[in-house]
Amino acid sequence: MAAPLLLEPRNGLANRLRVLDAGIALARAQGREIALDWLLHDELGAPFETLLERPPEIVRVTTWRSDSRFDRMRRRLRHARWRLKGAIRIGHEDIQPWLVDEADPLHELPASRHVIVKTWIRFFADEPGFGWLRPAPSVAARVADAQAHVGPGPLVGVHIRRGDHALAIQRTPTEAFFARMDQVIEARSDARFLLATDAADVEDAARQHFGSERIVVLPKRARDRISVEAVQDALVDLLALATCSSILGTYASTFGKTAAELGAVPYEVVATGARWTPGDGPMRDPPTTSWLAARGHPGGRYDGVRR
What we know:
Elements: E1 5-9, H1 13-30, E2 34-40, E3 58-65, H2 69-84, E4 88-91, H3 92-101, E5 115-119, H4 137-150, E6 156-160, H5 166-171, H6 174-187, E7 193-197, H7 200-210, E8 215-216, H8 228-241, E9 246-250, H9 255-263, E10 267-270, H10 289-294
């Protein structure tokens, strides 16, 4: 058995699922066990066990609260103990160059070395491809209810992220989504849409624009990112999107992309202006603007030249 992997997924739900997927793939490839650090903060406030069944590769889940000074101290002490054992620490600042340069050094990690990974980026591209993902029983029950709510017939999935994501709102305005959905209807007159969004006003506007018969929205108990109910409902939305025939997604959001990868369905980002191409690889995430700028891409926008 190789030395263990300490995995700390960061940010919101979809980013964490992608990091978990990468961590489990790495664990399987190298025969490692995973100690999972699950951080509760204002981007995700639901404990792991309220969302997912624990796959066998994860031998321990430790829940930490970002607002707890005691938890912060304990985390620092644990990481210090791992570093004393010679652990290799990998963060997103290490992973971003690999994505731009299409490098994959993790296959060369010494099996005898402990590894600490703290990131929001999918950092390892091998299988399993979400084959491990099993929703917790309470979520699975809501998924079953959602399937009955959706009804028969294929749907086009639409994920419109609003809330505090200013870049998504700027680069993917709601009007752009509606225009693209109108094009879908022109091509297929009976098209219906499963709309996943964090904004009730977007749901109302979609029903008004397209009619309630075309827009399917799953029930929401809450719309924040902190309560267990809200994060569970978001996971139900993601799993439902994965069953659609294709997905229209939001710029700079991994939610729709993750659902598309889970369901192995076509994915399109609805965006205005020049952008990093989301189709550069289904298992890779777009580098940040600051990283691209540091690599010489004008204005932090990928210009097609690898550096």
